[in-house]
Amino acid sequence: MSKQRNRALSAQELDRFGEELDALRARTLAQVGKVDADYIRRVVAAVRWTGLAGRALLYVGAIGGAFVSWLLWPACVLGALLLAASKIMENMEVGHNVMHGQYDWMRDPHLDGRSYEWDIVATGDNWRKTHNYQHHTWTNVRGMDDDIGYGLLRIFPEQRWRPFYLLQPPIAVVFALLFQWGVAIQELRVGRWLAGKTTHRAMWRKFVPVGRKMGKQLFKDYVLFPLLAGPFFLPVLLGNLVANGIRNVWTYVVIFCGHFTHDVEVFPKESVRNESRGHWYLRQLRGSANLTGGKAMNLMTGNLSHQIEHHFYPDIPAWRYASMAVEVREICARYGQHYDTGSLPRQFAEVSWRIVRHAFPSRPRKRRPLVRAEALAEAQG
């Protein structure tokens, strides 16, 4: 059941709503400086040291376990967990946020959003296109945001049902385990190629940089580092596999909880015609959901535990979202707008129910409009 009904806004209210959120953005940007640089550098250091500790423990378990048997599994398990934590922080708190340009003002070539390349099989260039531009510009607009179901899943009843979707519960599990690979091929639009809408030559040109990145990551995790353990390579290889699997599943859960909970909505293309700033904020609000959990949750989600604030302010250092959320939530309440937040178990339960429910034919829910008819008509001319 929906937690709160949204009040439809007049044209004047819509403008004021956007102005208040813009003002919060301006005040926050004015404060960005050394404290933000210190924060991201501490996170980069944490990524480096947890990664080194994780890999070292994998070697201790692999090699030391051959002589002291009880060392094998405890060291390997702890090593895999630390390596997974390192990969999660690198992908979510560093890579994702850096590529949004949150730290471009530092002029640090290692934190340049235009050139950063992260520890994942997806290329940074493709992510900047599919995520930074398409998803953040056209959040949850059908036919414009490819993140709606990622071309595999029917998450909303507004998506046309096909018999293929009956398989989506097990497909969703496989997708979670291989999430980085799904992200990697998203921009390739394999479906268009299979349908004959993209030539083999064009597909090959798009695949070359992706294939190069895939090869680099596979070599690093499953050839180079395991071979450094010599004949004891197998535990190291398995530890890398487990770390990548944990990172994939965690990323999938966080992203899906931020976009596909019970109250999140999708929108038709015509809803964004001549869209005002206030209306854009409303769409971002209704296309996002937050997670509760505190500082540890914020760090390990790259602050995507505040997905609403991230969609409002993608280029502001994400660690500031928690403090901004206090005012964002107050603004939403004053304008009668639902602020979707909840614990990870509750939000993911809602996501899981969506995946199961909409595997079968279903009709769209009737929703009250977010904007009064006259405001929408005025915005669309």
From TrEMBL:
Entries under CDD domains matching the protein: Delta6-FADS-like
Q: Which domain of life is it from?
A: Bacteria
Question: Which terms in the Gene Ontology molecular function aspect does this entry carry?
Answer: oxidoreductase activity
Transmembrane intervals: 56-85, 164-184, 222-243
Q: Which residues form the Fatty acid desaturase domain?
A: 72-341
Known Pfam families for this protein? FA_desaturase
EC number(s) for this protein? 1.14.19.-
Keyword annotations for this protein, in alphabetical order, are: Membrane, Oxidoreductase, Transmembrane, Transmembrane helix
* Coiled coil feature spans: none
Keyword presence, Transmembrane helix: yes
- Enzyme class at the top of the EC tree: oxidoreductase
- Does this entry carry the keyword Membrane? yes
What is this protein's record name? Acyl-CoA desaturase
